[in-house]
Amino acid sequence: MSDMEIPVGPQHPALKEPESFRFELEGEIVKSVDIRLGYVHRGIERACQDRTWVQAVYLIERICGICSHSHTTCFCQAVEDIAGLEVPRRARYIRSLIGEMERIHSHLLWLGLAGHEVGFDTLFMYAWRDREVILDALEAISGNRVNYGMNTIGGVRRDLTDRDVEELRSAIRILEERVGYYTDVALEESTFRNRLEGVGKITKQQAIDLGTVGPTARAAGVNVDLRRDDPYAAYDEIPFNVVTAEAGDLLAAAEVRLGEIRESIGIMKYILDNLPDGPIAVKAPRRIPPGEACSRYEAPRGEDIHYVRSSGGDKPERVKVRAPTLANINAVAESMKGVRVADIPIIIAGIDPCFSCTDRMVRLEDRISGRVEVLRWQDLSRRYRR
Amino acid sequence: MMLEKIIALSRKSSPWVCHFNSGGCNACDIEVMATLTPRFDVERFGIQLKGSPRHADILVCTGPVTKQIRERLLRVYHQMPTPKYIAAVGSCALSGGVFYDCYNVLGGIDRVLPVDVYVPGCPPRPDAIIAGIVKVLQKMEADALELGDQGRASAAEGGNSRVSH
């Protein structure tokens, strides 16, 4: 049988973001996949160099609308590290709280989209209805549903009032009940199980070799979570469990994400019960002293890394972002081999991809000859693939 | 023609919408998705989100238009049947927003396509997006009544020439 090529994207019903995949098929079976990233590349890292430190926080927030708090926390931590600022304890707790709320909203979003991709639209509607509960709570605290603007260098911008705490407690009660129901649905409902079980499977060794992070790695049995391994914000004081699964398929990914929502609810309860008093921010200097720092954050999709360098001015000298989807995209290409065409959308959705985080390119500048070369992701992987 | 007028008027009772992200940060896109979900539920009003631009009356466009996506955006636009309406959703779709000076960004949907309705906000609430779509419907009705006999098809031909290549 002759091979056939199917292009998917950048505009495609199954993709919410513009990315392009080229599948080589033999009959119904996927032989290989070529991923073309870069449609959402905006040049944020370069633009940061033209912003002041505080302005850069708001630009960084718009790297991704779903994990906006992850990126700003990661960036602010790096800058605070360079400037030697001690973030007040209350601010660290509020950062963790918003981070966990973001994790819940992101995982519910994923659950809904996964339901949608396998044709289980009822789950999509239910999950997104209950996601509104957490969005309402976020709106009450921060004033916006999606890009919260909570972080600033040296702390957070808004305090939690007693009313917010009460509203959060009632939101938690609703969520707890609903998430228990979804766990039953996802893990026992046969229409959902049969579409996910054994699909998009990677082994533990593959997960390690391909450098996967976050729920994708944990679903394959890699026990890694930065909140425990390299605590930031208030996580060194908060008790919680790291959820892992063994199977490495999409059902395991759903299991891990649902387990993480339950853990996040537990963390939120702990934070609300133990919220320390005190200031919510320290004053940051306008000019950050020279230095460099690398900051890590466990975003809903996995490990987010920011590298920041300052030359002592009022603007960053260099900001580099490694978003979690970039680490996971190789696992998609690997687990795609040998699957059926009908499973393509759910496998892509399986890592909870966020391409607006991911789209990067590399600019190589030869200092001697002055030659400048711009490499896109696929050029780079072609050049350095062994 | 009377028949065309009826078609044009009835189109507004069930407009089909296609969503395209031209390089935004996802925030507007999840809010566009949220308009479909039970809290907002635009399907009550006959508005359906369609995967293919070939079925769409309204293109809901988010993002500041990156250089790479420009060709694709134009292609999607040309795939839509006439009459076509464009709603730009989100601050960066309006003017580039926070990305206004990024090297890879053109800065707004209206640099590439003729926009009918602008919905500001970063991201706009789902209510605001629905209000924007309703504005498009009003425009649809006005166009149908005004052009009547000729239909909007010929006007849309002129509309196409507004597209910069």
Keywords, please?
heterodimer; A: 386 residues; alpha+beta; 2 domains; 15 helices; globular; B: 165 residues; alpha/beta; 6 helices; 5 strands; 38% helix
Explained architecture:
The complex is a heterodimer of chains A (386) and B (165). Chain A is of the alpha+beta class. Chain A has 2 domains: 4-38 and 361-384, no CATH class; 44-343, Cytochrome-c3 Hydrogenase, chain B. Chain A is 48% helix and 15% strand. Chain A is built from 15 helices and 10 strands. In chain A, the strands form 4 sheets. A 3-stranded antiparallel sheet of chain A has the order 1-2-3, with no helix packed on it. In chain A, a hairpin with a 2-residue loop joins strand 2 and strand 3 (29-36). In chain A, helix 2 runs antiparallel to helix 3 and helix 4 (89-117) packs antiparallel against helix 11 (250-273). Chain A is globular, with a radius of gyration of 21 Å. Chain A starts with a strand and ends with a helix. The mean pLDDT of chain A is 88. Chain B has one domain (2-160): Rossmann fold. The N and C termini of chain B lie far apart (33 Å). Chain B has helices spanning 2-11, 27-34, 70-79, 91-95, 126-147, 153-160, and strands at residues 16-21, 48-50, 58-62, 85-89, 117-119. In chain B, strands 2-1-3-4-5 form a 5-stranded parallel sheet. The longest helix of chain B is centred in the C-terminal third of the chain and has 22 residues, at 126-147. In chain B, helix 1 packs antiparallel against helix 5. Chain B is globular, with a radius of gyration of 15 Å. Chain B has 6 helices and 5 strands. Chain B has 165 residues and is an alpha/beta fold. The A-B interface holds A 10-14, 16-18, 38-44, 46-47, 50, 58-59, 62-66, 68, 109, 112, 124-125, 128-129, 131-132, 145-147, 354, 356 and B 20-31, 33-34, 37-39, 50-53, 63-64, 66, 68-69, 72, 76, 92, 97-99, 101-105, 122-123, 125.
